Each structure stands twice: as C-alpha cells, then as structure tokens.
Amino acid sequence: MKEIYQQTVEEVLERVNGKKSGLTSEQVKRSREKCGWNELTEGKKKGILQIFFEGAVYFPTAPFLVFIRLIQSDKAGTIS
Questions:
Q1: Quick one: pLDDT at residue 16?
Q2: In Å, how far are 38, 39, 46, 52, 76 from 43, measured between CA atoms?
Q3: CA-CA distance, 8 to 14, in Å (whole number)?
C-alpha cells in the first residue's frame, strides 16, 4: 500500500471513509461529544535559566562563552 502522501485525494477519502464536502453538523456534534474539541493545552513555560542550562547539554561551551562575553562587555561598559 502506498503511503498516504503518495495517494490521490480519492484514495485518501476512501481510506478514511470521508468525502470532499466534509462532516455534517450532526457528525461534528457527535465527534465533539465523544472526543472533545481539537485543542492543545498550554504547557508549563520554561524560565530563562532553564533554557540556558538545557542548551548547555547540547553546546557544553555555551555557558562559558556567554560568561566571557558578559565580562568583556562589562569591561567595555556596555552590554550588546
């Protein structure tokens, strides 16, 4: 069987038992009662330090380089 992205529209609609006109209002209502709304919940946001140290896992020298840059800019009297 071909991958779904290799199939024609008609083949995909047949595979998922769909039609070009979409769902009826009644089908939408039943689907929402059964599965809920198609929404994502917002996850917990990461703080700047957490992002910084997670990046250090992939780029171990990053914290050191940032620290050096902060020292250099402090000596110059500006942070850019």
A1: 87
A2: 16, 12, 9, 19, 40
A3: 10
CA distance 53 to 59: 10
Structure-block tokens of residue 61: 């020298």
Q: Label residue 17 by pLDDT band (50, 70, 90).
A: confident
CA atoms within 13 A on the CB side of 8: 2
Q: Where are the alpha helices (DSSP H) in 1-80?
A: 9-15, 25-35, 48-58, 62-76
Per the document, the length of the chain is 80
**Sole residue written with tokens 């071909």:** 2
**4 touches 15 (CB < 8 A):** yes
